[in-house]
Amino acid sequence: MLFHVRMRVHLPHDLDPAVAEDLKSREKARAHELQRAGTWRHLWRVAGCYANISIFDVDSHEQLHDILSGLPLFPYLDIDVTPLARHPSALPDT
Ligand SMILES: O=C(O)C[C@H]1C=CC(=O)O1
């Protein structure tokens, strides 16, 4: 199952810089792990924003929820999820 996910990051301005760097470092490691597993299929920066557009490939809504809510930055993310279905005019393997 494919999902389009938009994440906007809102780190508090008074967050200790060392804590922020630790969160970003752990988030990056987890993002790499999920990309290598094929679960986090696309990860794009939204130009001009501290936000990303991602495509996740998971087995269930519950798996997606577990992954997103387990991200180190989760407490600071606004997340919008859109389920994707195959378009009838899409060429195979696109
Ligand atoms: O920077 C972001 O968009 C937030 C998050 C997503 C992947 C990652 O490494 O950080």
TrEMBL record:
Main enzyme class: isomerase
Xref: InterPro entries: Dimeric_a/b-barrel (IPR011008), MLI_dom (IPR026029), Muconolactone_d_Isoase (IPR003464)
Keyword Isomerase set for record: yes
Family listed: Belongs to the muconolactone Delta-isomerase family.
Quaternary structure annotation from Swiss-Prot or TrEMBL: Homodecamer.
UniProt-listed NCBIfam families: muco_delta
Protein name: Muconolactone Delta-isomerase
